[in-house]
Amino acid sequence: MSVFLSETDIARFLGQSLPDTRKAMKSSKLKSINRQGQKVYPREDVLNWLAENFTSLTSERLMRADHSSADNAGLDPFSCGITQLLSQSEVCFPDKASTKSSVLRFISNKAVERGAVYDTAELREQLEQREMVISTALKCGAALVHPLDIRQLYVERELLLLIILPHPIPFGGPGGRLTSLFFLLLFPDPHRHVHILARLNRLLRSNDFIERILSAVSHKEALDMVYRRELDVISSGGKS
Question: What residues form DSSP beta bridges with 40?
């Protein structure tokens, strides 16, 4: 996909009309440029803007973004995609990661161990740069960590990791909220990336789910909790 996205492209991500998308982009204050008579936006700026704004969407609009981005990525929006991805990777329970820096270092090392990327330092730098722009931590106590610009990395394969800390740490969450649940997203396909972002935001709208998964002590236990929550989200439509 191009390094630039048109308003039509963004409408497909969000699953909404072009007029509504134009209105949203106007209020976003993202910088646009004109290419061949068409208004376009830098792709990574749009993806980062979506990540920051998904938490403010209504459940119904978030569901539309989930389904539309899945359709455009050639995925089944009614499958348990998060569960499948985590079953292929790992749920980690580090006991020594107690600062933002140590968490990002742990995450970067794990991504290299899983064969998703080859350069720990490059990934960590991209994650740190993303956090400097604005924190990926949500008010629910979870963070959806991802590179500022994934095109700067050589990604061998896409990866979703779940990291559960024994104690919450300061990570830049809204209002100083501490963070103890971390997801790493490495998805070069932007539609795939947006789908995962939207689906995770839907899962994390349940405080009960977050409390339960923080009590998990094994990969299998955490995966089972994710699976049950994802089934609930899929069956609830836009009410999750």
Answer: 6, 33
- Contact in structure between 164 and 185 (CB atoms under 8 Å): no
**Residue 37 and residue 142 in one domain:** no
Does 65 lie in the same domain as 35? yes
Strands 38-42 and 4-6: antiparallel
Mean pLDDT of 201-205: 96
**Separation between Cα atoms, residue 202 and residue 197, nearest integer Å:** 9
pLDDT at 114 over 60: yes
Q: C-alpha angle with apex 122: 117 to 126, nearest 5 degrees?
A: 100
In this structure, what token pair is assigned to residue 233?
Answer: 């989200």
pLDDT on residue 29: 85
Which token pair is 170? 């300061």
Per-residue pLDDT band for 44 (boundaries 50, 70, 90) equals confident
Domain containing 158 equals: 81-239
**Segment 12-40, tens digit of pLDDT:** 998 989 999 989 888 888 899 888 888 89
Could you give the strand order of the β-sheet that contains 38-42, starting from the edge strand earlier in sequence?
Answer: 4-6, 38-42, 33-35
Considering the domain architecture, whether residues 47 and 116 belong to the same structural domain is answered as no
What gap in Å lies between CA 178 and CA 236, rounded to an integer?
A: 29
**For residue 199, is it left (φ>0), alpha (ψ between -120 and 50) or beta?**
alpha
Number of structural domains (the chain) is 2
**Phi-psi group of 64: left, alpha or beta (phi > 0 → left; psi -120 to 50 → alpha; rest → beta):** alpha
The CA dihedral of 90, 96, 100, 104, to the nearest 10 degrees, is -40
